[in-house]
Write a structure and sequence with these properties.
46% of the residues are buried. Helix 2 packs across helix 3, helix 8 packs across helix 10 and helix 12 packs across helix 13. This protein has 2 domains: 428 residues, Rossmann fold, CATH 3.40.50; 124 residues, GMP Synthetase, Chain A, domain 3, CATH 3.30.300.30. The C terminus is likely disordered. The radius of gyration is 26 Å and the shape is globular. With 571 residues, it is of the alpha/beta class.
Length: 571
């Protein structure tokens, strides 16, 4: 099908009323993804820069298209701001030189096309340089920002990387894998041409928090990565050379490298700001004109407190999976002076290549600047599956949004509702945190040897509302000994130390009881049933159950002291 990209871009800038449904070209792009990608690639080539080497459906040279094409323009590729150092800028030319030298060093250490390279970096210069060096060598990257040692060990054991890129002070996090650490001293001689991937080559293995369990590596093909980047760069965010995109507080594992790829492919600049720094001083966010700004509820509330005016923002977007508090959003829009600034809902899944759902970017009605409208992104084939998980198509206008082809792809989790010509985000399949899976098993495993606990279980509780948000409650059983005032702090400290802050439960409930077990493991179904019916609370206060619990505790202590097998914890 023919696609007029110039007209498409004009329509996206002007916006369209969602009542009329997606424009005709948008619907046709779902039916002809390959033709649409080819049209975007032709329009993307532009003037004043070398043509891209990638050819949709044929070959993809990420290093050339992301970096080499833009070296001559002397533009910044990455900006960041720190409290002490202030602004730091990394240009395309410098990034090219650093990544080329690192690739040369790594090649000497044995990195070859197809090898798995795990990047243990936070967002910053080191991550960009290592990511691009991996792409130049044709490697398969994995982003693994520093977590607690137990969470790191779980993911590294599953991933089984060939090499690891990390900074020297992160070595304690790599226990058992230290021999895989790559050395980078900046002394390599830049040379050799960059690697070209085939469409089906796996360019990345990503630990997506949208996949359950979240420590499952998800393959990202070269085709998905490149098509996602060009679609997001041109359509989702409308980026041009020199434009700035920022998304403070957006979870790294869900959104990178997709946001980086979309930005660099278009010769734009990625602006990174830490929320901890913005909490003290949000001024750096206001110092540069932002083509697109991602806003989370946490950032929204921070800017409300500081009464910031966002006159430098041309387009802002939010994740539709986050809490839908329309009043808070509209208060923020009014206070920051954004009533006439385009806004949109954008759901990004880096393991699928980038944005998978998005809404119109224009201002069609100031009274509906915060809404639940979304459409599957242009250029991606998709379908609605029945929520019964049978794999059949949805028999109604509500179903699980599923990208096609879905073979070897993690099952979808978003419920999409079709009302006439409009589509609405309708929540998730199962309990999640803003669309992200909660790793309950990792949390309970990390608490197995806590002295004052005899078992734990995590129970998700729906808070109701439009998007069915959930809270995860940790049930902590203390046996015959009641919890101390410091027990909750101790458990939170342990979870954060061993796993990381993202693993903290929303609440902890202590019960001076023994949990039911099946084959030695805590029975999560029993725990949930007892909690929801109030039985755990009643038993914890009942004198008879308290006496039985104390007696059971004595029996267990006696058995342990005598060296006998501990009695079965069946009840």
């Amino acid at each position: 099908m023919p696609f007029d990209v110039k007209d498409i871009l004009r329509q996206l800038e002007a916006g369209f009323a969602p009542e009329s449904g997606a424009p005709k070209w948008w619907q046709e792009s779902w039916e002809d993804p390959d033709g649409f990608a080819a049209a975007l690639a032709e329009a993307h080539a532009g003037r004043g820069v070398p043509p891209p080497k990638s050819r949709p459906g044929q070959q993809y040279d990420f290093f050339h298209d992301l970096i080499v094409r833009h070296v001559a323009l002397e533009r910044p590729a990455f900006r960041t701001h720190a409290r002490i150092q202030g602004w730091q800028t990394l240009g395309y030319r410098t990034l090219h030189d650093l990544a080329s030298r690192r690739a040369s060093e790594w090649a000497d250490q044995g990195v070859e096309p197809g090898m798995k390279v795990c990047l243990v970096h936070g967002v910053g210069q080191e991550l960009l340089v290592s990511l691009l060096a991996t792409l130049k060598l044709g490697g398969c990257f994995t982003l693994l920002p520093p977590m607690g040692p137990r969470a790191m060990a779980t993911r590294l054991d599953i991933l089984k990387p060939d090499f690891i890129a990390a900074e020297p002070h992160q070595l304690p996090l790599l226990k058992g894998h230290e021999q895989l650490l790559l050395k980078s001293q900046g002394r390599g001689a830049p040379g050799f041409t960059s690697h070209t991937y085939k469409p089906t080559d796996v360019v990345g293995l990503l630990f997506s928090p949208l996949v359950d369990p979240p420590h499952t590596p998800v393959p990202l093909t070269a085709e998905d990565a490149w098509k996602g980047a060009i679609g997001d760069g041109m359509l989702t965010f409308g980026l041009g050379q020199g434009d700035l995109l920022a998304a403070p507080d957006f979870p790294v594992l869900q959104h990178l490298p997709a946001l980086l790829f979309a930005t660099l492919l278009r010769g734009a600049t990625y602006l990174h700001l830490e929320m901890a720094d913005l909490a003290l001083n949000p001024a750096p966010l206001l110092e540069h004109p932002l083509r697109a700004l991602g806003v989370t509820p946490k950032l929204r509330d921070l800017l409300l407190r500081h009464r910031a005016s966002l006159r430098n923002v041309q387009h802002w977007f939010r994740n539709p999976e986050e809490p839908y508090d329309a009043q808070a959003w509209r208060t923020w829009v009014k206070q920051c002076g954004l009533q006439s600034v385009p806004s949109s809902n954008i759901l990004i899944d880096a393991s699928a290549g980038g944005a998978v759902l998005m809404s119109s970017r224009g201002v069609t009605d100031p009274a509906t600047d915060v809404h639940t409208d979304v459409f599957p992104v242009p250029g991606r084939a998709w379908t609605l599956k029945d929520p019964n998980e049978s794999g059949q198509g949805a028999p109604t206008d509500v179903g699980v949004f599923t990208l096609l082809p879905d073979k070897d792809r993690p099952p979808g989790h978003v419920l999409l509702a079709r009302i006439r010509q409009r589509y609405h985000y309708g929540g998730t399949q199962g309990f999640r945190h803003d669309g992200r899976a909660y790793s309950a098993k990792e949390v309970t495993a990390a608490l197995e040897d806590v002295p004052f606990l005899v078992g734990t279980s995590v129970v998700p509780v729906s808070t109701g509302g439009l998007a069915s948000h959930a809270r995860f409650i940790l049930l902590a059983f203390t046996g015959a000994t009641p919890a101390s005032p410091s027990s909750e702090q101790e458990l939170n400290r342990r979870i954060e130390m061993l796993l990381g802050g993202d693993f903290l439960p929303d609440r902890i409930e202590f019960f001076p009881l023994f949990p039911h077990r099946v084959k030695g493991a805590v029975d999560d179904a029993w725990c949930a049933s007892q909690f929801f019916t109030g039985a755990l609370h009643r038993k914890a206060k009942d004198p008879m159950f308290q006496a039985l619990t104390a007696l059971r505790g004595r029996l267990l202590e006696s058995a342990a002291a005598s060296g006998e097998d501990v009695p079965s914890r069946a009840r």
